[in-house]
Sequence to fold (511 residues):
Amino acid sequence: MTERQILEQHAQQHLVWLRNDLRTQDNPALYEASQQGHVIAVFVITHKQWESHHDSHTKLSLIYQRLKVLQEELGSLGIPLKVIEAKQYSHIPQALLELGKSLSISGLWFNNEYPLNESRRDRAVEKHFVAEGLSVHRFHGDVIFPPGSVLTGQNEMFQVFTPFARRWRQLFRQGFSKHGLSPYPKPKRQKSDILLNNIPHDDIPPFGEPLKESQGRSHEKSHDESYRQSYRDDLWPANSQAIHRKLTAFAQKRLERYGEDRDMPSLPGTSTLSPYLTIGALGIRECLAAAEKSAAKQPGSNTTLLDEWLDCTWVTELIWREFYRHIMAAHPKISWGKCFRPAGDNVRWDDNEKAFQAWCEGNTGFPIVDAGMRQLKQTGWMHNRVRMITAAFLAKLTLVDWHKGEAFFMQHLIDGDFASNNGGWQWSASVGADAAPYFRIFNPYRQAERFDPEGEYVRRFVPELQSLPAKQIHKPSLEQCRQLGYPDPIIDYSQARKRALAVLEAAFKHG
Ligand code: FAD
Fold:
């Protein structure tokens, strides 16, 4: 019997397109499709993505490792995972349709993505399938509330975070408090292995190497090879048990102190779950459920406390993630590089390549900035407080266009996520959705003294300065710098601050 004949005997098979939702649990599209009949999963690779032109090496490594894990997990549920290549982004609709037809599927299922290019791609895919009489089913797996559903009294998107978060919590309490919050279960095991036996898993091509489709073509150069980090399985395990253990350990042991510890980069005060949320190895409902469960386990917990878990700072951070998704969907101009605040587009950035290179390499002569950039290079991740310090340093004190920093982060972060990264950069450059005025300028010396008072974080990533006491480590003298082989500061802080204020004022006051 041919593959097609076997499949025809199994009418009602559904194709689930996995993208940034690489999980079997809390995956609405996968679960709902499995309720309707047999499921085949697919992941599409484009050569631009896989050859690392845009995303970081560590993020692609994590996706690659995760796909292998997922293939096993899906296999144990009787679900084959196909991996297809599309030469270009615009070829994805056709590639998916061809696969769908060859497998005689009756419907396509996926969870929405919100950036502009992804939304356009998804509309094109939907059009292709519907034109062939195939059904398309879309879900919101990446957020609790889809963009456009958390609005002001005038039915508009909020311009700043705090009232957005208030409304989000209000809606959450109205929508979920009665029934609790449960992540979607894993799909049931398919009744027979017939699909898996006849449609074997596809091999996952090693990323970073030319794909079949693009072999023989002259390649565009991927980003600077000298920054290529290696993926560390010990830091970022891809298997589900390890990821869930990490979530549970955080929720049970560190969540309670998160409000106090989260700004101290030398402490393991935050969850470090962002890479998993970005690629969808972990679902947002799973995170909220873990927070709720940990509140229930606190000694003396009662209904008030149970209700209060939703107000904790960690949930606020998860709401930030959602806020930036809503902002991006409400303001498509952001996706083509525009600032949220129109005046931000008038800033006259300085094309200072030397300063930019020193920043990228962690050689600015500002220890806290260099520690952050070196943490990024060594691990693929950077602490949130230090992301704010390094981003504000580049955008304000060197006046290098924040878009360059945004792209560099995307190319090096293991959790690189367009909406959160863009939102974080616009916030740091004071051109984004933020209540603070443009003249807020972080003083890197003061930030370092406040958030790394003992200099432990700097010592960890800037070994040249290891011997310096806490009092000197954040602002070594020129003599110390030269003795220890550490670079002189690339700017004078006070002068740079004055210059930044003048340039920003020109854009914001007179622009
Ligand atoms: P936790 O403190 O444990 O927070 C839990 C989760 O909430 C995070 O995993 C993340 O998904 C979300 N979150 C936390 N803080 C923020 C925030 N400020 N904005 C949006 N979501 C948040 N986050 C990314 O996931 N991807 C990015 O590419 C990214 N780029 C950033 C760039 C800049 C310039 C700045 C200032 C922030 C950026 N962030 C980004 C947000 C934040 O720094 C990271 O989410 C956080 O450091 C991840 O660590 P964690 O998992 O330990 O977070």
